[in-house]
């Protein structure tokens, strides 16, 4: 099978496996890549909204994972499967280790056998948030939560044992196919409930559609054979920094809800099981220098997301 790219060039379709393909990021990866690559998905549970071949596999089982991946023979694995519920990770540590570390170990080991590229999606939560400016890829991680710790352990395993990989750290993901901050804000507003939102936590809100587009560009350049140094950490996030409070106000404003529905509160007055970094901002110069990728400002991404949310989603 072949696929057409820019300037009339034709390439054989790369075989791509997306783990966690039924989730928020995994779904947008599937939607973005299915027309250009031979895409398959895998997850723990059956899903009905995907239009790609999908397999139900427990990736925390090493033998099952190895057999499945060696049989499928992907050339690239987009490893989006994870336990992302930050507070649940704090109380369910064994499950967090299984879903965030063990699955990454097994995927990495299988990919090594095939010399397949792994693109692993990591998080701003590997940092403690004490830095005054944006975090670069060279800053030393110091996670505050079990979620951040297990994601960092997965990063370390991939860096130690992986033959071919990119680690993409991202921040404050939102998209149409999962629970996220804008969706929660709108749900509360529609119910007429007043909201208190933390005003002293900042980050880069990142639209899963845009992140999927960045992955598409990385795969395109790799398939073209452009000289790219693999085995790198890259920050990938929409441009611009905002507090959660200002982000909530922007969501309300774009949906014509009164901004007075939301009021600011300090993070010291909010008690969650898992600690959050005060500063989650990611510097994105490296991915621009490597691949020429710059995701649009978060304000534009939010507008596109809200438009997508009002559209009829595939069933």
Reconstruct the topology from this structure.
Elements: E1 2-4, E2 10-12, E3 15-19, H1 24-33, E4 38-43, E5 54-56, H2 62-72, E6 76-79, H3 86-91, H4 93-114, E7 117-123, H5 146-161, E8 165-170, E9 173-174, H6 181-190, E10 195-198, E11 202-203, E12 206-207, H7 208-224, E13 232-235, E14 242-243, H8 244-254, E15 262-265, H9 285-291, H10 298-310
Parallel strand pairs: 3-4, 3-6, 4-5, 6-7, 7-8, 8-13, 9-12, 10-15
Antiparallel strand pairs: 1-2, 11-14
Helix pairs in contact: 1-7, 2-4, 4-5, 6-8
Folded structure, characterized:
With 315 residues, the protein is an alpha/beta fold. 39% of the residues lie in helices and 18% in strands. It contains ten helices and 15 strands. β3, α1 and β4 (38-43) form a beta-alpha-beta unit. It is globular and about 55 Å long. The model is unreliable at 1-10 (pLDDT under 50).
Cα distance spanning the termini: 28 Å
Number of helices: 10
Q: Tell me the structural class.
A: alpha/beta
Q: What's the pLDDT, averaged over the residues?
A: 92
Largest sheet: 7 strands, parallel
Shape: globular
The Rg value, from CA coordinates, equals 19 Å
Helix content, binned percent: 25-40%
Strand-and-helix sequence, N→C? EEEHEEHEHHEHEEHEEEHEEHEHH
Note poorly predicted spans: 1-10
* Number of E-state strands: 15
Strand order of the largest sheet: 5-4-3-6-7-8-13
Strand content: 15-25%
What key phrases describe this protein's structure?
globular, two-stranded antiparallel sheet, single chain, 15 strands, seven-stranded parallel sheet, alpha/beta, 39% helix
Quick structural summary:
This protein has 315 residues and is an alpha/beta fold. Helices cover 39% and strands 18% of the residues. The radius of gyration is 19 Å and the shape is globular.
């Amino acid at each position: 099978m072949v696929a057409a790219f820019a300037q009339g060039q034709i390439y054989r379709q790369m075989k791509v496996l997306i783990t966690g393909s039924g989730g928020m990021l995994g779904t947008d990866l599937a939607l973005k890549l299915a027309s250009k690559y031979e895409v398959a998905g895998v997850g723990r549970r059956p899903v009905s909204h995907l239009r790609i071949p999908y397999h139900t596999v427990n990736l925390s089982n090493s033998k099952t994972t190895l057999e499945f991946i060696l049989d499928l023979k992907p050339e690239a694995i987009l490893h989006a499967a994870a336990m992302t519920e930050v507070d649940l990770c704090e109380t369910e540590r064994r499950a967090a280790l299984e879903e965030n570390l063990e699955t990454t170990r097994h995927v990495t080991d299988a990919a090594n056998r095939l010399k397949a590229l792994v693109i692993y999606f990591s998080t701003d939560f590997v940092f403690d948030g004490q830095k005054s400016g944006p975090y670069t890829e060279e800053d030393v991680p110091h996670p505050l939560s079990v979620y951040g710790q297990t994601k960092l352990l997965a990063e370390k395993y991939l860096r130690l044992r992986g033959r071919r990989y990119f680690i993409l750290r991202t921040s404050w993901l939102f998209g149409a196919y999962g629970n996220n901050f804008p969706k929660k804000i709108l749900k509360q507003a529609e119910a007429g409930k007043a909201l208190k939102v933390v005003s002293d936590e900042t980050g880069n809100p990142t639209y899963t559609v845009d992140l999927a587009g960045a992955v598409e560009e990385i795969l395109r350049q790799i398939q073209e054979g452009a000289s790219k140094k693999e085995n790198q950490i890259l920050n990938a996030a929409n441009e611009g920094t905002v507090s959660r409070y200002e982000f909530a106000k922007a969501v309300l404003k774009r949906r014509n809800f009164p901004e007075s529905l939301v009021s600011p509160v300090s993070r010291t007055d909010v008690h969650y099981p898992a600690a959050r970094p005060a500063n989650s901002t990611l510097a994105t110069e490296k991915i621009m220098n490597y691949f020429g990728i710059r995701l649009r400002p978060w304000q534009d991404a939010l507008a596109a997301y809200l438009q997508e949310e009002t559209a009829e989603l595939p069933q």
